Amino acid sequence: MSWSEGGGLEERTSRGMMTMDSIGEARKQGRTALDELAGKQLLAGFGIAVPKSRMVRDAADVVAATAALTPPLVLKVMSPDILHKSDAGGVKVGLNSAAEVEAALSVMMKIPAIAGARLDGFVLEEMAQPGQEMVIGGLRDPDFGPLVMVGLGGIFVEILKDVSFRICPITRLDAEEMLGELKGAALLDGARGSRPVSRAAIIDALLKVGGEGGLLMTHAQDFAEADINPLIVSESGAVAVDARFVLTQT
Amino acid sequence: MTREDNGMNADVLDRFKPLFEPKTVAVVGVSAKSMALPNVFIRRIREFGYRGEIYPIHPSADEIDGLKAYRSLGDTPRPVDYAYIAIAAAQVPALLKDARGRLRFAQVISSGFGEIEEGRELQEQLVQAARAVGARLIGPNCLGIYSPRGGVTFAEIGSKETGPIGIVSQSGGLGIDIIRRGFGRGLTFSGLVTVGNSADVSPNELLEFYLADAQTKVIGMYIESAKDGRRLFEILRNARAAKPVVILKGGRTRQGLAAVVSHTGSLAGDERAWVALSRQTGCVLAETLDEFIDILHIFQTLTPRPQATRRVVLLGNGGGASVLATDYFSRQGLDVSLFGKETVDPLAAMRLPPGTSITNPVDCPVGTFQQEDGRVAEEILDIIYRKGRPDALVMHLNMSAFVGRSKPEVLDNLVQAALRVQLRYPGQAHFLLVLRSDGEPVLEERKRAFRASAVAMGIPVYDENANAGRALAAMQAHELYLSARNAPAGGDQQRR
User: Which residues touch A56 (CB under 8 Å, ≥6 apart)?
Assistant: First the structure.
């Protein structure tokens, strides 16, 4: 195992919201994407809720990190070499104590795909309340510039490709129409016995990502692709649980 | 509209006036011995009624086709508003050098530029040469311009009448198709510019011209490469669908999408951005040339209604055709629902012959339509308009079913009846006519004449119900966009 450079949470937070720095830093290190923490800081900077988290480098950090958070927690590996954390065994959910976190950490570090990768560390994070999983995406189109996408999470995006795109910047009406276009939109209103979720929270997140002065317009030159997957939406709000920002090639 | 917009409008109109209404035309590439394409161009614009001066440019001949010829673009008696240039690609940049300060638009027909790898640099030289002499470049690799208001055309056949449709086409051949097919369908144009590689003047700039041009009521674009898609988006968004814009998109690029790694990237597909463009700006996407023409035709003839079209009444002869049309219209998001009692009762009271269906679709066998030489239709229509209150009425007539069974004027009477009812209920419903035929020559001839008179009365005419349905759905989409975007805040917003 080798630690890649990039700094731990303490160094990062001590420098505050440093979006441009983290993009420049990622480029300087030859990375193709922002790491998860940098991506979430970026989102938070645009007013999108992200779960409270702490960076964990090794077992020595676990107790303090766990004490600062409210369980249940999730532990996630953070590495430029690992694109799909779950597939690699790098995600463990439902951790309720420092002992459980330590155990999960020790299991993960023995997984060959993780042991052999460059590691930025592990994110220990409060788990979002259950809700409807959504995906908000971004894409830089060679003709039209930044596009924003929305879809329902899971099979709706991956198998049914039930998504809607718009050219940035979008208006509130555009965002409403995007949701209306989704074939699975009825699920948002509480189909099949589920509780309705907040369309307003999704629209708000869409505008913060794809609206005038939003993330994608502000960083039109920086990102080739973006995934906020999932954005977990409840009756009252939306939380970006994972985020991936792929840098443009310069 | 702000004063700034007015200023910009005036500016773009001034800039393009010499292109659409050239006072002087130079033609480069004419032959003294044979009928080369530029010679044909001269013949065409003379026949078309061009009234300005024509300057053939030729290295040695003194006269071409009865016109005094000049050695170069620098030797013409007056500056040149529009030059039609069809010579070997490599010679064009040098040719332009002679035109310093006295050439407004150079349309370069020649190919061998940016459309091929080896021609990229030459195209750059061409752009530089035009810029250096202060000329705007149209093309290269295109076919010409058709501007009835200026008496200029590159097409052999086309209406001399200036109309409401403005076209920009990145394909020359398709431009000719649009003019010729449009001619047969009664489409008339405010202009059509083929822009080929669009090395200088872009489709976006011409879109801006047509948006500002008072003559143009509807805009059609054939686009293979957006060139500057973001600019296109901004122009259309700012225009707020003030004029319907119909886009026929050719060529599906995967450029830039080859290396996607995210979900979003892999889901982006080829046309997502174009679909988004249409949803956000109200422009209408056509998938085929026929659809493009069908949609332009409805916008040319009918005025969008403030309340979006939903309820459609189908009236015609042919049960199966009615059923198929109902299915197709429904799939397009149009509502062909049964009449209520308030409409059915008065229709039933008319005691129409057996076999007549009066519920929407209204299916009238020829026997019903020919009652009183077709004038019975007026009473049916009046009840439909008064009680059924449709947003659109589509009258479909299977012409072959009338042959040998009714007097020729029955068809005329039917349409006249429809028009009289239209006038009694002004602005209530769009009226579309579908003339179905089997291609039999005599019938086609009759249909042609019938179509021409109908279009002259402002009625869009279609060959099949599906064509009418697609065009009406485009009208609906445009109306929905306008009503959603222009509604007061908190008003009725359209959701699908």
Answer: A62, A65, A75, A101, A105, A121, A122, A123, A124
